[in-house]
């Protein structure tokens, strides 16, 4: 990872694992979200509400597991534009905290869906801004080829698991003498720079 040495290795390893786990849980959550909408469509509110609750828990856990990736992306990009990157990291972490807290309040019935939907939507949009801007910084610096495109995909929510698997792969420490820049990257061939 460019610009990272020493202590960066453990951060990268943790972030790589938690980001992939976040993508898996996110994909499961999307499945429950689709099932919830199907259940509402066939007029069965009871099961739909249970399916929605499972999706809410998946969102909470998935984005909580995403937090280390914000730190790892900050570490990867910190040399290129340190002030902007630090602000972006704070934006991403702040959005994640807001999402996790709001989802937890919903799951424990401390707030209703109607009370929670606008603030959590704003937090999700804010995280979407982080995905796109951090991806753009990564693309333009060459540290995350294809980052803008993948950030846009992640911001759609449905594309989040794909982004998580993509980033998790890029955060994995290189095996043996190969380095991240010496390994072929299929996304880099069509990267947006």
What's the story with the biggest beta sheet? Answer: none
Question: What is the succession of H and E elements?
Answer: HHHHHH
| Rg of Cα set | 17 Å
Query: How many beta-strand elements?
Result: 0
By secondary-structure content and strand pairing, the structural class works out as: mainly alpha
Count of discrete alpha- or pi-helical segments spanning 4 or more residues: 6
Assembly form of the protein? single chain
Distance between the termini: 18 Å
Strand proportion: under 5%
What global shape is seen?
A: elongated
Low-confidence stretches: 1-7, 176-193
Q: Indicate the percent of residues in helices.
A: over 70%
The averaged pLDDT comes out at 88
The count of domains is 1
Characteristic key phrases:
193 residues, mainly alpha, 6 helices, 74% helix, 0% strand, elongated, disordered N terminus
Question: What topology does this entry show?
Answer:
Layout: H1 8-41, H2 45-77, H3 82-107, H4 113-141, H5 147-155, H6 160-171
Helix pairs in contact: 1-2, 1-6, 2-3, 2-4, 3-4, 4-5, 5-6
Q: In short, what is this structure?
A:
The chain has 193 residues and is mainly α.
């Amino acid at each position: 990872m460019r610009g990272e040495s020493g202590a960066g290795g453990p951060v990268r390893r943790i972030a790589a694992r938690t980001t992939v786990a976040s993508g898996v849980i996110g994909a499961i959550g999307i499945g429950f979200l689709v099932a919830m909408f199907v259940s509402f469509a066939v007029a069965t509110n009871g099961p739909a509400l249970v399916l929605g609750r499972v999706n809410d828990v998946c969102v909470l856990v998935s984005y909580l597991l995403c937090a280390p990736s914000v730190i790892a992306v900050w570490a990867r990009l910190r040399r290129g534009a340190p002030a902007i990157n630090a602000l972006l990291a704070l934006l991403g972490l702040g959005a994640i905290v807001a999402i996790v807290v709001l989802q937890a309040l919903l799951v424990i019935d401390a707030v209703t869906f109607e009370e929670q939907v606008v603030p959590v939507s704003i937090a999700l949009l804010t995280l979407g801004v982080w995905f796109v801007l951090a991806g753009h910084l990564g693309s333009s610096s060459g540290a995350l080829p294809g980052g803008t495109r993948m950030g846009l995909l992640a911001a759609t929510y449905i594309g989040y698991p794909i982004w998580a698997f993509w980033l998790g792969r890029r955060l994995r420490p290189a095996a043996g003498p190969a380095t991240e820049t010496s390994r072929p990257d299929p996304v880099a061939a069509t990267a947006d720079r």
